[in-house]
Amino acid sequence: MGKDQDSERLEVLRRIRLLEQEGRFDVDAEEDPPTIPLLPDKVDYLRTKPVSRLKSKAAYTAANWFVHSLIRRKKLVIRQVLGMENLNCVTSGAVLTCNHFHPYDCLTVEYLFQHSAQMGKKQLFKVIREGNYTNFPGFYGLLFRNCNTLPLSQKKETMYHFLQAVDTILTRGDFILVYPEQSMWWNYRKPKPLKNGAYKFAVKNHVPVIPVFIAMEDGDRIGEDGFPVQEYTVFIKEPIYPPTDLAVREQAQAMKEKNAGIWKQIYEEFYGCPLVYSVSQDCV
Predict the structure, then answer these.
(1) How many angstroms separate the first and last alpha carbons of the chain?
(2) pTM of the prediction?
(3) φ and ψ at residue 46, rounded to 5 degrees
(4) Is residue 212 within 8 Å of 234, Cβ to Cβ?
């Protein structure tokens, strides 16, 4: 007999359908608690302090154990990775973009980075929500605060340090993972409209964007929430470089549109249906 589907998950799916109908793609479907503001003295973006580096090392040890445990227990299933050479070939800094549908998508990108030719040469940083950094207790809070994360902030002074850190990381040759959809919709398979931030980072620092898109299929196992465990196929596409024949203000828009087109093509080819933002025409 199958497990009952979790009522909270069902409510999130209901909210996703409503948000899609309303075209509010940058609104999170989860009900998060009020965000605690991040003050500039509460974050060490570049891990310059010895205590920050020690915490980061401990957090990565715990995170790697956790990810391998998820894979071993088949709670995180990476069925196929296509295009790893596109990650391996970049010699400069880069912005990685990825669709955002589950906390495990970040773990997936981190896992692939650690198994790429870049491991040992570069570091991967991740842009995260302010509340993920300031609000989360326990194990997930440890990871959010210490695994090379770059929390956004509602405080202008903190954001000044954030932007400085982004420039430093990219110009010295490291990678930054950005979710340009600006929202997480649980197990949502469609690519959502993209925001400009990731592409502005790339243009300002003369680095490429590497588009990553994770497609998913129902697996045979049923998770603790009563839903099928998703099995991931990860597409890593060719780097998108800033088009220098355009004015600076137009380069980010061109990169964003190209990224969106790549994701749309992957979606339509993988799932075999057109990308339509309408529940009545939702083929998956």
Answers:
(1) 25
(2) 0.95
(3) -95, 10
(4) yes
